[in-house]
Amino acid sequence: QVQLVESGGGLVQAGGSLRLSCLVSSRIASFNPMNWYRQAPGNQRELVATISDGGSTNYAASVKGRFTISRDNAKNTIYLQMTDLKPEDTAVYYCNARRPMDNYWGQGTRVTVSS
Known about the structure:
This protein is an all-beta fold. The protein is built from no helices and 11 strands. The chain is globular. The relative contact order is 0.33.
C-alpha cells in the first residue's frame, strides 16, 4: 500500500508564505500526474496544481503566479511553494498520486491564512 504524508501546513498571515511537502512511500517516478488539491470548509475538493512525470505543470487560475509545484524524484517528494497567501487559501491541502490503475491520497495538512 502506497502512503502519502503531507507536512508544512500551519497558520500564516496574509501575504506570507508556506511550503508544503508530500513524502511518498513508493517511487514517485511511477506516478503521472501528481497533484495538490485543497478543500475549504463547506466546499468541494478542488485541484490546485498538477505536475507530470516530465515536469510539466498546471495551476488553478486562483493560485497561478503565487503557487509553485515541484517534484524531487530522488527524495520521493513533491512540494507546493505558496507565496502571497490570501485568506481564501485557507483549506486542508491534500497530496494525490495517480497511475493508470491507482489513485492515492494523503491525510491532508491544514493551512490557515489570517487577514
